[in-house]
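Subgroup meeting minutes
Present: P.N., E.W., G.H.
Scribe: E.W.

1. P.N. recapped why we're keeping a running log of single-chain structure predictions: easier to compare across weeks, and new members can see raw inputs and outputs side by side.
2. G.H. added today's entry (251 aa).
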Amino acid sequence: MAVLVTRPHPDDETTAEALRARGFDVLRAPMLRFEPVPFQDDADATYGAVIVTSANALRAVAPYLADSRLLKLPVFAVGENTAAAARDACFGEVIASKGDAGALRDLVLASAKSKQLKKTNPLLYLAGADLARDLGNELGENGFAVVTRTTYRMVPAPSLPRDVCDAFVAHEVEAVLHYSRRSARAFLEAARSGGVEISALALPQCCISAAVAAVLRDAGAPQVTVAASPDENALFEALGRALQPRLGSNL
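Output recorded in log:
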């Protein structure tokens, strides 16, 4: 029996490795495909900081950052995974929030309140083409000027891998992990087109947030478990709850 990871590549590999270390067999079906968007820095613009909500934004701009002035700016990043991508891109000062984009917004506001960040210079938001929330507008309502630059897009996968469809038919999948609303929707469409929607939805669906869980519940999934916080460790804990009592205390 295997856990199905729907996270985009290459993060799916990291998740798979962590699950295997916990004793799980793993299948991977990345439901979104990363596509970078050409990036060019506006040399005439002066920014106070960079904000990023996904490691993909940093992967997209990394080829353009050699000797870039942007590397001298502080970076506000969602979570340690995104912060690590910022450090890998050679940003010197990286400040990570715990949680989601809302936590990042609060961190930026707190930095301004403590005078560590000035509102006089705009923030550069390196973002994806499809935003789950309008972080730029939220910061704008609090007195910041935010320049949003689209650096990548995530394209839904049209189908599930053949081995994953076969595993659903053979009842060899024990749970599915979901990381975003868009990937959850793509999973539902792919399962439907592959003729395995009923067997796929009957399994425990473990979701990184309540918003993601709503997509699965609306589709009729009877077993939906939500992580206590929007991070992977909490998602793994949700997986453990969903699979009790089989796992016992193995997680």
